[in-house]
Amino acid sequence: MLCLYTVFGMELRMTSTFPDISISTDRLVLRPFDMADVPAYIEMMNDELVTAWTEAPHPYTQVDAERWVRRIAPAQRTKGDGIVFAVTEFLTQRLVGSVRLHNTDWRTLATEAAYITAPWARGEGYATESVLALAQWLFRDQGFERIELRTAADNTASQQVAQKLGCISEGILRNARIARSQTEDGGWADIRTDLIVWGLLPEDLEGVAEQLADAGGYGTYNDWN
């Protein structure tokens, strides 16, 4: 649903929501989460690297996963904040990650992307492929003008995804995120980290898919998150 208002003869967007859709690539299907994803999602979210670089609860429980699938993820779309996709393999239907848009600004047509790849699917280029498909859909079909990615300063794998997509590094937000570091006793301690801000505009995607194909595809590094 799209709401508009007029100021001094200019038509402006107040709020909207993304359509309830799925997106397919040659290898992947991006679709809404369902309850069948819960066991694999719990396993993915309890992975050490996911724990380190995300703000998800730890340990990630059955209750957390069911709340995500039933309430939190759908509400991202219905409230207009963004949209959440489970990333699954086209052939096996196995959950291999997630990708989402959030902090969406409907007036400026800008949003922020975030992505996670399951430990059993790293090294296949799934994060790059899924975010590229999402960006193409967002720019071409939804008329958006900007996607922003924010990666922790030490999360080099996530930065490689941004670079492969043609994102431009726009600056550093100092001490802007709390990450987690594993302690000697197996616990986790909060640590502050800088964030690198990446911007992606429609013109930045020109030729990206072809360049990836010429380079042998997506999976040349561990693009886990």
TrEMBL record:
GO CC annotation: cytoplasm
A Pfam family hit: Acetyltransf_3
SUPFAM superfamilies per record: Acyl-CoA N-acyltransferases (Nat)
Domain of life: Bacteria
GO molecular function, one term: protein-N-terminal-alanine acetyltransferase activity
Gene3D superfamilies: 3.40.630.30
InterPro entries recorded: Acyl_CoA_acyltransferase (IPR016181), GNAT_dom (IPR000182), Ribosomal_N-acetyltransferase (IPR051908)
Stored PROSITE patterns: GNAT
Domain N-acetyltransferase: 28-185
Protein name: GNAT family N-acetyltransferase
Annotated source species: Streptomyces sp. NBC_00008
Lineage start: Bacteria, Bacillati, Actinomycetota, Actinomycetes, Kitasatosporales
